[in-house]
Amino acid sequence: MSNKTKYIKEACVEGIKQAQNAEKQGADRIELCARLDLDGLTPDMETISSVFQKCNIPIRVIIRPVGGGFIYSSAEFEEMKQSIIACKELGVEGVVFGITTKENTLDISKTKELVQLAHPLKVTIHKAIDSVEKPLEDLDRLLEIEGVDAVLTSGKGQTWKDGENLLLQMISRAGDKMEIIACGKVTNDNMETVHESLQSSAYHGKLIVGQL
Description:
Elements: E1 8-14, H1 16-24, E2 29-33, H2 45-54, E3 59-62, H3 74-90, E4 94-97, H4 108-118, E5 122-125, H5 135-143, E6 150-153, H6 164-174, E7 179-182, H7 191-198, E8 202-205
Parallel strand pairs: 1-2, 1-8, 2-3, 3-4, 4-5, 5-6, 6-7, 7-8
Helix pairs in contact: 2-3, 5-6
């Protein structure tokens, strides 16, 4: 495996203060969320706009109307669409979402619909992929969708180390076609160790550039 020395550090932030701190502390990109206690919900447009105006690094916004899983009602799906349109009008770099089915797979048809709506924004499919039964099969399906740029995953583990084997398989399978953003307790303290093991092109965490 070639030794990649350059990689993206994506800081998971909640609000303007954390976003500004992340940029100052060396983050390459921000994933902007509300309610990290619920694993991240869509922030309000005022917050998104404020971060967009005051930060100079790329911002990807989580699109998740409710916590507690990744199956959405038709009203919630409509809300996701409206949030994506608002982000597109504002001009952020990208959006982050994930939808699953009752059969415990990614909902590919709804994913395609949102990806097409989001174009030309970058699209990350988030940790919803860690909740499905066969993530490698779903990754293969995502690789066929034009406009999906990245997948955020901890390889179904509580930490990157727990999910290391699956992460390595996903990184290998995605190759240069898609960015696998590895996460799961990745911090500025263990970043070098994580990269030595995974050799991914991007990493994600709340503490990836230290305490915010």
